[in-house]
Amino acid sequence: MTTAHVIAIYVDERKLKMVEDLRANYVIKAGKGTMRELRRIAAGRLSTVLDFVGSYDTLRLGYESLRRGGRLVVIGAARGSLTFSSGETRGREVVGSILGSLSDMNEIIELAERGKFKVKYSVFDLDEIGTVLEMLKHHEIVGRDVLRP
Q1: pLDDT above 60 for 1
Q2: Using one digit for the tens of pLDDT, what is the confidence trace for 48-105?
Q3: In the 8-state DSSP scheme, what is residue 23?
Q4: Which CATH architecture is the domain 7-99 placed in?
């Protein structure tokens, strides 16, 4: 679907394994050397960063790693903040994501059905909701979970 190279950064080893299985081009374990490793791989060419967390650390990492004129798309809602002075923007943008329409969702489902991308998910019965909430609380969910009525 795209010629873009995907660089995935996670703290959790299970999520790193998941993105490797989904064929991310590069996988980085988040930690002290994350920015150095990201700079080595990207070499200043990151045009877009999708931040699925939205914490202070991930927003700063995403913004600082963008090339001139790049775009940081904030998807996660971890209530982080990002501050910068007007002199350091280098034309970079920060935008929030928006929910798609029903038509967009139907298009995504159609693409998935045609095998254009993979979705990692687990299905649980509705009476297992307590277990799923505990898994969520302890960051044990990898991919997406679906509750079946």
Answers
A1: no
A2: 999 989 999 999 999 999 999 999 999 988 889 999 888 889 999 999 987 778 888 8
A3: T
A4: 3-Layer(aba) Sandwich (3.40)
Look-up of token digits 């790049």: 70
Q: What is the 3-state secondary structure (H, E, C) of 125-142?
A: EHHHHHHHHHHHHCCCCC
Q: Residue 82: which of 59, 109, 58 has the closest Cα? A: 59
More confident residue, 117 or 58: 58
Beta carbons within 8 Å of 63's beta carbon, 6+ residues apart: 49, 72, 82, 84, 92, 94
Burial of residue 90 (CB within 10 Å: 0-12, 13-18, 19+) is: exposed
Query: CA distances (Å), 52 to each of 12, 32, 60, in order?
Result: 14, 20, 13
Report in angstroms the alpha-carbon separations of 107 from 49, 50, 104, 122: 23, 21, 5, 22
Q: Could you state, in order of their start, the residue ranges of all structural domains in the chain?
A: 7-99
- For residue 93, the model assigns a pLDDT of 94
